[in-house]
Amino acid sequence: MIRWAVIGLSVFLLAAFAVAARADDAKPPPTPEQRMQARFPQKVRVGDLLGLPLLDDSHSTLGLVHDVARSTDGKLKLVIGYGGILSYLGWSGRPVAVPIEAICIRGRELASLDMSRSEYAAAPTWRQDGAAKLPPDATILVALCRGY
Predict the structure, then answer these.
(1) CA-based Rg of the chain, rounded to a whole angstrom?
(2) Among 4, 12, 30, 61, which lies 20 to 30 A Cα-Cα from 117?
């Protein structure tokens, strides 16, 4: 009798785990904003971001931050000089807008978390087109890097 009770309980638990696993599969992936909120964003002055290097997964410099702008849809973008042979020395490459949700701050550098190097290469050249550059004394939220 006890054996059948244990078997019945085991079958019930396996069925419950299967239902829970299917429920997790049905969840949509988190949005960039949700991923940023999970990274404990902190207040940072825009002027402190200007000139910082943006690094990829292999710690190679993608470019330096030239501006922070709010696009016409209200999203914050970091404008970096991407590419160019001497971009790591501060020589500007092509301006590319990076969503603030795709980066995190680690001391005196930024890391690209949600964009690959190929996405930077394929990104359109940034044009101001109604976007408002933020002044150096403005404060924005930037996610923190963990375990990098």
Answers:
(1) 22
(2) 30
Cα–Cα distance measured from residue 146 to residue 148, given in angstroms and rounded to the nearest whole number: 6
Whole-angstrom distance, CA of residue 20 vs CA of residue 51: 47
pTM confidence score: 0.74
The two structure tokens encoding residue 48 = 């402190």
CB-based burial, 80-117: b 16+ in 10 Å, e otherwise: bbbeeeebeeeeebbbbbbbbbbbbbeeeebbbbebee
Query: What top-level class would CATH report for the domain 34-142?
Result: mainly beta
Q: Does the pLDDT value for residue 95 go beyond 60?
A: yes
Q: Is the CB of residue 128 less than 8 Å from the CB of residue 70? A: no
Domains in the chain: boundaries: 2-29, 34-142
pLDDT for residue 139 = 96
CA distance 103 to 114: 7
pLDDT category of residue 135 using cuts at 50, 70 and 90: very high
